[in-house]
Fold this protein.
Amino acid sequence: MFSNTKCECGHQNHAGTVLCESCGKPLTEEWAGNPETPLEMRYDGVARRSQKANPDLLDRVWNFFSSVKVAVWLIVLTLIGASLGTIYPQENTFLNLQTYQEFHDYYKEHYGTAGVVYHALGLSRVYSSWWFIGLLVMIGTSLVICSLDRVLPLYRALSKQQIRKHMQFISRQQVTYSGPEPVNKEAWLDSFGKELKRKRYKVWRDGDALMAEKNRFSRWGPYINHIGLIIFLLAVLGRNVPAWNMDQYVSLDEGETEQIPGTNYFVKNEKFTVEYYTDAELPPTLKGTERPKLFETKATLYVCTESCDDPSKDPVLSPVKTHDIRVNHPLSYKGLKLYQYDYTPKPKLVSVSPMLVDKKTGEQYGPFTLSMRNPALTYRAGPYTLTLKDKFMDFGLDDQGRPMTKSREPNAPAFVFIIQGPDLPETGETYIYFPQQIDKVKFRQDVLNKAIADKLDIRVPSMSGVVLSENTSTLNVRVDRAMPFIWTGAAIFMIGVAMGLYWHHRRIWLRFDDGVLSLGAHTNKNNYGLRMEVAAAMTKAGLPVSDKSLDNRRKSP
Amino acid sequence: MSLLDFSQKALLAALLIYSASFIFFMIAVGGKKWSNREPAAHSRRWGWTGFGFAAAGWAAHVTFFVTRWVAGGHIPTSNMYEFMTMLAMAIMLAFIVIYLIYKNALLGAFTLPLTVIIIAYASVFPSEIQPLIPSLNSNWLRVHVTTAALGEAFFAVGFAAALVQLLRVIDYKRTDKAGKRARRWMEVFLLVILMVIGFLLSVFSFRAAGYQAEFHQVITKEDDLGQQQTTERQVVYGLPPIVKPYSSDTVEIDSFLGMKKPLFAAPPWLKGVNAERKLNTILWSIISGLILYGLLRLIARKQLGAVIHPHLSDIDPDDLDEISYRSIAIGYPIFTLGGLIFAMIWAQIAWSRFWGWDPKEVWALITWLFYTAYLHLRLSRGWHGAKSAWLAVIGFLVVLFTLIGVNLVIAGLHSYAGVS
């Protein structure tokens, strides 16, 4: 179908144009037919890119996403979907559950039939569901297409505006004035223009027609904030790139050093502190409760410089950063971040400083320091030499009665030494040592050591010879290379949204016809402010009007 | 007098001055047709008086906030009492800004009671200063909470203007279906407001009377190993028990209107912290709200909206439309910054991830999406007038659910705010 889109002023408009791009005359039946109502000024009445005569498939897809109606529906559906996910806790809040069945049982036990339905419908994992992510992707598509569809025609329309507008365009604005022309037309126009310039308008003249405009940049606000959102959404997708993202947990006793999995870094827990508020610091109702005041891991981050992957050698570490990791104060080094995640109050031995005692003479030799995690291989105690032959961090016996370790944690440490010295065979005697008294009794150290148990004893003389770790500190290690893009997107969004909502694009058109002054003014937001501004400028130029009388909506019955 | 006592007195002063300001704004709006006066001059004079009191009340309110900050050593925004009083302060700031732009006395007549109700609601919660737990000990607490509250405060002012606009534009002469429906929804909405007032009235009157009912609850459950696990606890009510905790015995109960025992017991499936007490409070709110509504209807002998409507006839609904929209447009960027972006920055520092789909985060996003939809419908789809006013009203209900409902109903990382 062919429709004539040429305006009476001679301008050839695109199909779908509502107001002539040049003179502003209403073109469509809907608007031309009813001369009373104020005009619809969205996008200045230009045709959007999607308004084509014969759309093909690609055009139809484009048209679908270019609709603000569709965009609002997408927003509303996302909103509803997101709210459904807050009815019961999401699956990812339960770190100890894994399988479908475990989750099913959990929801059944805690929330009954409603919980079963909730879980079966997949509402317990809404935010990772295909349809929710699909909605977000569609919102992203809509953002791109809606913006492109409107910004280019709008840019074209605003960059070449005609100063003398069609009479209907002026008289059908939201803010209008019509009255006899002032006595000295030229002088009045000059001083009106000057008043507007003082209010930071740009003023153009074309004969006795005038156009003034300010804050055009605010029209680009929505498109800039949409660009920000697109960057944000792309960055969120980018977080799924494995190399960009790491999420690991490292549990450390005091004094322990561990490698951060998948990296060249090691981290050491120098000391962990937990503090609670004292009763004096607490208000009456909280007295006697344990209200945490501080969790802190004094940590050192090391980078491995040599023999990192060689299991037969100890890695060579050089410290790169020391930091007191607290909640709200992570350690940060080259994009690697270590957060205080949790702690477990579980006392563990770090090291002991025992003496070697000759049971017959009562003579004591030493002390020597024995570290649980990184023990040295030989020790000297007076005339004796102890060589570490084997160690079991969590001592136990397997089903054939042979010693084994149940875990890597020093829950029940045991050390097997070869002791050499006076009155002992050249090759030495084997001696098994349990630093913890409870293990010594439980595993019957003296029976295991047989004859040598009557001669020698390894004994910690006092508690000062024992170093304990009170707590195990769990650190969350993160790498998130998408974060700079997330913040960039958010910042651009904020700039765009502030531009669009805190500044208002204002335009004023004025013309004289047969002794009648006609003025129309438009703003995309805050008509009230525009009326005040126009009324003030007209009054100062010598044509007193009240701001209320300019309101075109009020004039229509 | 300690600094904290002084602080509490300042809040009480603010509350009283706000109430006075409310009355002056009412005179400004309602007294225009009184004899021997020129309506515009009357409205202006009483409007400025009301505004002067509102500003003075706000000064007292800020005094409360600052002295409490000094006394507690940390910004008073870390539990429900502190947050709600701060929100009220933010609403008054937003009101002052919008009033200075539009100078509309009606806005005062509707914003001030909202502020007073919020402060009264805050006083339901324990007001003692609690020392900060480590996760709240951050500069971002200050930035995030205050900015988010300020954004929400502008939404509140937009809500007040939209409510007046609706009361103004609903046609009480129309008898067709759409007209009836609009009127009915307005009555429902006014009823909800009366329930909030009913809740406050019952809590404060029973608190003043020193009412107390105590129950001993014994719950026996079978654990995973098939063994009987028994938990016992004491439950104390401040309101007469309509519903008592599941599987509990009365320890002591003050008599109220001859009511000496609970009417029925809560069902066993009710879960959550103090769920029975909350259910009891909700029942009280509904009943007292209904009673209040019934009484008012009996006195007025017509719909409550129809009572207010005639007082608004000389007001231009387009002005209200613009005020409501403008307020939301000012609040939207502030809310985005405080409620989402600062929140994400803090979450990244404190919880190692900027977004974790915690219920409070989700509801902040829902609030944001809702106002995003509002702006798009308005700017691109031409939703003005009543449609957009209904959205502004619903939007503020979403805000209130995000602020209060999430903490009361859904547990999550934000549930530490003192809500007992």
